[in-house]
Amino acid sequence: MSTTIDPAAPRPTRAGARTLAVTSGKGGVGKTFITANLAAALAARGEKVLVLDADLGLANLDVVLNLHPKLTLHDVFTEKATLEQAILPAPGGFSVLLAGSGMVEYSRLTPEVRDKLLHIIDLVKPRFDWVLLDTGAGISDVVLFAISLATDVLVVATPEPTSLTDAYATIKVLATQQDRRHVGLVVNQANRVGEGKLICGQLQQVLHRFVGPTPGQPFRLELFGEVRSDQAVRQAVLKRQLMLEHYPGCDAAQAIKALASKLLG
Amino acid sequence: MEHRLPAPSLIDAQVLDLDQALQLLQQAGALLPDEAPLSAAWLQAVLDALCDLSSRDALTGLVNRRSFEMALAREVDRVARSGEGALLLMLDIDHFKAVNDTHGHGAGDQVIRAVARAVEQTVRPMDLVARVGGEEFAIILPNCATHVGLAVAERVRERVSELGIEVAPGQMLNVTVSLGGAFAPQWVRSSPLLWTERADRQLYRAKAEGRNRACLEPQIDSLVSAEEKGMLFASLNLDTQQDLP
Q1: For chain A: N or C, fewer Cβ within 10 A?
Q2: What is the fold of B65-218?
Q3: Domain membership of residue A45 as a residue range
Q4: Chain A residues with CB-CB distance to B under 8 A?
Q5: How many CA atoms lie within 13 Å of B166's alpha carbon, on the beta-carbon side?
Q6: Is pLDDT of A238 > 60?
Q7: Tens of pLDDT along B25-57?
Q8: Has residue A165 been placed in a domain?
C-alpha cells in the first residue's frame, strides 16, 4: 500500500499541519514504534502525515521501519540535500524525515540547531495534515525544544516504575515550564485491561497534588490509548515490520487505530 | 513600529492642557526640555519624561511593577529565542512590619531606599532591579549561568545584611532579606506568570526555612521527590496481571 505524496504540493485549504510531539521520559518504551504505527493509522484514514525524527542524538526511526535512507535531516542541515529530496515515503503510506546517524553532532541544542529545526518545521507544516515529532528520550533541552514546537503532546509510558517516574517528570516539566494544560498519555505494553486508566488516574492525582493548579485552568492528563502486550508486536519489532501493515488485526493494531480515531476527533 | 506625530500643522498644540503633566514632572525633579515650548521636539521630550516617570517607583527610583512586567515578558521572549540562561530573583525584606511598627514609616521608607541602593550596586548594570511591592523587589539577570545563580543571590543577601541604615540621628538599623530564584527554561516559550510563580515559591521556601537566606529552584535532575514517587505507586499494584473492572 503506497500513496504517492508530493511533498512540495501546497495545501491551500488548511493553515498548516497539526503538530504532535510523541515523547516518553524513559527510553525503550516503544515511543518510535507507537509513532510509526500511529502515522500509518492516520494515513489509512486519508491524512497526509510526516514523521520527523527529532531524536537527533539517537535516532532509530529508520531501524523501526527498516529503511536505509541515503538522504537525511543531516544532509538538509548541511545543505547537501533539499528538504524535498530528504522527505521519503515510508511503508504505511506516510512520509518520513529521518535524522541519520550524522546527527549526533546536533544533539546539543545550539542556536544553529534550533534555528534549523524551526525553519524545517515552518517549511513542512503547510504541506501535511499531521507532523509527528518523534522526540528523544529524557528531558534534555533538545527534547523540550522539540516538544515546544508541537501544539499537542503524547507521552508514552509502560507500567514499570522507572517509566512511570520519568513520564511523570516529563509531564511535570511540560506543565510547569511550557504552560501546557493538556497532555495525552499512551500506556504501552499494558499487562491487563484497564491498566491505562488506572495509571492515568494515578498520575493525574499526583500531578494535581504537586503541580500547583492554575486558577481556572486545571491540568488535564488524558488517556489516549492503552496498547497491550501482544505477540504480534514482538514479531513486528523483531522483523522490523510495520505492525499495522503486517498484523492489522491484532489487539495492539486495533488500539493504535483507536488512538488515531481519537486524534481525528 | 514607530508612532510619530503627524505633521505639526495637524495638531494645534495650544489646545492641549499640559499644566498637570508639567507640574508632575517638576515635582518629580525631572528636567524639563530646553526645546522651544510646544514644538514637536518639546512635546516628545515631555512624553518621554512622563513615560520614564510612570515606569519608576517614586520612593526608590527603581523600575516599578508595571515596567518590570513588561521587561519580564521581553526577557521570556529573548530567552526562548537565544537559549541563554536568565535568572529571576524575588527579594523580600525580613520582618519589615516590625521596622515600621517600632521605628515608624519614615524609618521604613529609609530601609527600603537603602536596600534598593545596595541591591542595585551589587548586581551588574545590565540587570534590572524593580520594586514590585511594599518591601518586595525583583531582579532580572539576563545571561546568567545556572552554576553562578546561587552565588549571585548570596552576594545580594550578604551585602544587605552588612548595611548599617541610619533611621534617626545616631540610630542604626540592620535588616536582612530572603531571596528566591528560578531560571527561565531555555529554548522553550514559558510565560512571565509561571516564571514569577516559580521564583516566588522559592522565596516562600527561604522564608519558611528561617529567613536571611537564598533558595533557588532545584535543577531538573532532582525533579521527582520521594513523596511524589510514594504517592505515584501507592495503589498501582503493577505486579499483578488481573484485569480491572
Answers
A1: C
A2: Alpha-Beta Plaits (3.30.70)
A3: 18-264
A4: 109-111, 114, 139, 141, 144-145, 147-148, 159-161, 164-165, 168-169, 172-173, 176-179, 191-195, 197-199, 202-203, 205-206, 209-210, 212
A5: 3
A6: yes
A7: 988 888 877 777 888 888 888 999 999 999 999
A8: yes
